């Protein structure tokens, strides 16, 4: 009797513990194997496609080249498993643990990793386009040069993650924790970042054009030379942020707080600055042509050599501001 046949018979008889099994190349597709314990097993090239292994224990198992397409592994333990070159397209791993798992060369298209734990996992160069990672734990994960275009990362924890060169264009990051991360040059074009925490993040030269940053926290963030053209920054917190040479043309900053922000040489042409707080902000040689300043507060801001073309000064508060010619506003 083959070991796979013996496993199936024993499973149907109520047995669940099959640790350290050798099922290399076994065909186990479409089977119901919920709560099975295959920890530390040899499962290389096994075919588990469309099988149900919810709540299974596959920790420390070898699954190199395994076919796990459309498998159900919700709440499963895959910690320290070797999934090198495994086929995981369409798989459901909701709430699964993949701490320390090896995923080099794995096919991950259409995978559902909602609430999954991926702390410290190496996903360098992985194609995660459109993948569901909502509320996933990605602390210390290596996502450098990964493709996360259109991925769903709302509520995800990315503290300490390596996001060097990652593509997050069109990604859903509402409420994501990106505090203090190095996001230098990252592509966030059309990304959804409403309510995200980007405080003290390094976003130097990042592409945030047409992104949604409603109520996002960018307090103390480095946005030097960042592209924020046509972005939505309604009620965003940009206190003490570095926006030197940033492109904010046509951006909507309604109600945003830019107290003590550095906007030297920034371009805000055509931006909506309704009710924006610019108290003690620096706007040396900044361009503010055709902007709406209704209700904005520029008190004690420095606008030396700034361009204020077609600005209605009566609409804003300018108390103690240094004007483009160096004089104080009265």
TrEMBL record:
InterPro entries: 5peptide_repeat, At2g44920-like. SUPFAM superfamilies: Pentapeptide repeat-like. Gene3D superfamilies: E3 ubiquitin-protein ligase SopA. Pfam families: Pentapeptide. It comes from the Bacteria. PANTHER family: THYLAKOID LUMENAL 15 KDA PROTEIN 1, CHLOROPLASTIC. This is Pentapeptide repeat-containing protein. It comes from Phormidium yuhuli AB48.
